[in-house]
């Protein structure tokens, strides 16, 4: 059974077992969140978002429509997801540019992910990095714009 804090606003019925949702979190109606996740305080998850199992979403993260997050991902505090490369007030695209976060990836605090990118399996995004293009599996990304600093050993 999931544990949902009474001061959160969870409309979705698609919350996995043993998932915890903390106070002041907002989860829209059709969002899908897997088992054993930890959704920390002050987060927002829109309807067209799918989150796998054993994912941690730290405080201050807003996950917009189109995001797909696989199992065992860590998303640090205040990570910024984007889904529209040409945003305008009250002008909505027909479809949003999806962000894919692959299995076991780790995204450091205050990183920014631009629309339409894929973050590879078991990669690590450093704190404050701005990710402007796809990230290969096992890559470590740092800086603005984000660049590969090295590769991790195969940890899977």
From TrEMBL:
The keyword Lipid biosynthesis applies. GO terms for biological process: lipid A biosynthetic process. Keywords: Acyltransferase, Lipid A biosynthesis, Lipid biosynthesis, Lipid metabolism, Repeat, Transferase. Pfam families: Hexapep. Belongs to the transferase hexapeptide repeat family. This is N-acetyltransferase. It comes from the Bacteria. The keyword Lipid metabolism applies. The lineage of its organism: Bacteria, Pseudomonadati, Pseudomonadota, Gammaproteobacteria, Pseudomonadales. CDD domains: LbH_WxcM_N_like. GO terms for molecular function: acyltransferase activity.
């Amino acid at each position: 059974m999931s544990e949902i804090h009474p001061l959160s606003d969870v409309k979705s019925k698609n919350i996995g077992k043993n998932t915890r949702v903390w106070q002041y979190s907002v989860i829209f109606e059709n969002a899908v969140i897997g088992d054993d996740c930890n959704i920390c305080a002050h987060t927002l998850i829109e309807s067209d978002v799918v989150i796998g199992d054993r994912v941690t979403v730290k405080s201050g993260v807003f996950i917009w429509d189109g995001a797909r997050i696989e199992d065992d991902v860590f998303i640090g505090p205040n990570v910024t997801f984007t889904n529209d490369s040409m945003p305008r007030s009250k002008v909505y695209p027909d479809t949003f540019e999806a962000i894919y976060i692959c299995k076991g990836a780790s995204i450091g605090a205050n990183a920014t992910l631009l629309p339409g990118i894929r973050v590879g399996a078991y990669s690590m995004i450093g704190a404050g990095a701005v990710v402007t293009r796809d990230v290969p599996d096992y890559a470590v990304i740092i800086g603005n714009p984000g660049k590969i600093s090295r590769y991790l050993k195969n940890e899977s």
